Structures are given as C-alpha cells and as structure tokens.
C-alpha cells in the first residue's frame, strides 16, 4: 500500500470523508470502457498514465495535467488523490521534487484499479436528461 495508509479500506475511508474526492463516479462511457477491458490492461493504462503525467520530479503543468474525463483512469486519479504531486503528498505521503519509483507507480496503479473495481460494483449513475433531449431505447 502507500506510505500513508496501510490498506485500501483505510485509504478509501479517508477519501470518502472528502467532499471533493467522494463525488467522483465513472460515467456511462467510462464504465463500458472499463468493463470491456481486462484488469491487467486497465492496470497497464494506469501505470503508463501515472508515469507520463505525474511520474517526473517536476511534471509539466503540475496541478492541471489530469483531465476530469475521457478515461476511467483520469476519474480514478481525482477520486484517489493521484492527480498531481500536491495531492500525492497530501493523500499518499509521497514527496514532491523527485521521480516516482516503479514500486510507487505500481502501488498507485493498484489504488486506481481498486477504485475502478469498487465503483463498477455500485449501481450506474442515472443519466441526466436535459430539456429537449431524448433518450435512446437501447442505452
């Protein structure tokens, strides 16, 4: 597990107490994406995204480099405090100004994949219908 929390349950309990972190849920498209991929492939995606976006000692655009949508890993990064180096320090105790080790990348990837797995176990969010919008019968 990460430096600050010894178990997934301890980390997720702390994240659930954060109003900001606890609001994140996978969108319908992200759920479909995650359900159609193997856990191994999602873990590989998480590892690559983490390494490329926040793995460097001074990531480009740190604090603004992680989109809020477009891939289930992005949503999970925000939900788990793995979105920037400041959040990594706050939620996982990982210092800034140094590259993330392979061990840390593996642990953070596991956190992200566990969050995705747990979110997929929850009922899907109901799609919000806006004025003038119609729903497909096949969604």
From TrEMBL:
InterPro entries named among the record's database cross-references: DUF4186
Pfam families linked to this entry: DUF4186
The protein, known as: DUF4186 family protein
Organism this protein belongs to: Parasutterella muris
């Amino acid at each position: 597990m990460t430096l600050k929390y010894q178990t997934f349950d301890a980390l997720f309990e702390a994240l659930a107490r954060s109003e900001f972190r606890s609001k994140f849920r996978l969108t319908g498209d992200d759920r479909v994406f995650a359900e159609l991929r193997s856990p191994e492939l999602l873990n590989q995606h998480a590892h690559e995204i983490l390494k490329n976006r926040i793995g460097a000692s001074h990531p480009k655009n740190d604090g603004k480099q992680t989109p809020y949508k477009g891939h289930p890993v992005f949503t999970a990064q925000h939900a788990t405090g793995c979105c920037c180096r400041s959040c990594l320090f706050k939620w996982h105790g990982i210092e800034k100004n140094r590259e993330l080790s392979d061990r840390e990348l593996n642990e953070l990837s596991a956190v992200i994949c566990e969050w995705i797995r747990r979110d997929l176990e929850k009922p899907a969010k109901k799609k919000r219908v806006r004025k003038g919008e119609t729903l497909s019968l096949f969604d």
